[in-house]
């Protein structure tokens, strides 16, 4: 959606939302995501929008984010709503110096109505921040950190194009704890080309020795327009077989449970009380505001995407225009189905009463015979007023959700 209008008069954003048309927002809260699309090196499997080095855009981009914050803070949609989570992601946010990140966070907390106990997360990659920088981020208000280890195996890190070593990865986690972060999450990838069950086991063991509060364990998937996709398609790179990948997942479930981390979403494990609140809002299909190039906002079922171009993003904000490129309006039924799909990613599943109150649809009546069929296939468990994926359903989640969408 390219309007050429100031952001506070962009179509649909200058008038109050009528929740009855698309479903009620849960609890009147929202999250804020800040996209910082700079990397020191682009990983060959990554499809997220980012640029290497920033081509000198760092300071200009931050100024544009300041302008966007000031403009969006006046949206009538925000009236009576409270920001419960803030998440700085990328790219690699810590390519930008900690002092500048803290200044941006301070502006966001000043201009938006934020909960005093808001969860404030930042993604960091090893070799981009030291303990002094981590202490500065903690001092500035960040209270949760997500560290992109991806692996703790030297060969696999090289295969993934990562710029850090296994020892640097472990050191970053220890430094984060020393800097005062009490909520530490580690990201790991399985299904890496050339990875074996034994190397995955070794990475899991080393990661769990760091006593993380949260683990995100992602199966490597091939995304179009990435070097990995082209390499596999041309038979120059081979991925582990399905049986090996399932064995890696089973091992992860076993080891995380033994370490006291509970699986609460398909790819996420946490100590009780340390679940990522920002992502929980996504999986509950709540509202969130996206700041930055390529960031997505979802405002009561209305999805707006910013331009995926740093130069264009900056020039639009500097000219007093908005950054929106696309808009998608979900009707109440589509919003309901999407909420069902997202909610089933969580191990606790979905609550029928909550969905009925929010959208006016009763899940068993809406899906009818399909639910019986998926239950007979042992993919879904339907128990009274709730529904969740079975263990088998978790492994085949994409197929189940394709049926329900």
Task: Describe the protein in words.
The chain has 16 helices and 17 strands. The protein is globular. The chain has helices at residues 58-72, 98-111, 131-140, 154-159, 166-178, 197-209, 227-233, 242-258, 277-283, 310-318, 332-343, 352-359, 363-367, 369-376, 391-395, 397-404; strands spanning 29-36, 38-39, 51-52, 82-90, 114-124, 144-150, 184-190, 214-219, 262-265, 268-270, 287-291, 296-299, 302-306, 324-329, 350-351, 380-383, 386-389. The model is unreliable at 1-22 (pLDDT under 50). The chain has 405 residues and is of the alpha/beta class. The protein has a 9-stranded mixed sheet with strand order 9-10-8-7-6-5-4-1-11, with helices on both faces. It has a 3-stranded antiparallel sheet with strand order 12-13-14, with no helix packed on it. A 3-stranded antiparallel sheet has the order 15-17-16. The protein folds into 2 domains: 26-283, Aldolase class I (TIM Barrel, Alpha-Beta Barrel), CATH 3.20.20; 339-405, Arc Repressor Mutant, subunit A, CATH 1.10.10.920. α2 links the parallel β4 (82-90) and β5. It is 39% helix and 22% strand. α1 packs parallel to α2 (98-111), α1 (58-72) crosses α10 (310-318) and α6 (197-209) packs parallel to α8 (242-258).
Number of strands: 17
Give, in spatial order, the strands making up the sheet with the most strands: 9-10-8-7-6-5-4-1-11
- The biggest beta sheet, please? 9 strands, mixed
Number of domain units? 2
Structural class: alpha/beta
Radius of gyration, CA atoms, in whole angstroms: 21 Å
The shape, in one word, is: globular
CATH architecture of the largest domain: Alpha-Beta Barrel
C-alpha end-to-end distance: 25 Å
Q: Regarding CATH, which class of the largest domain?
A: Alpha Beta
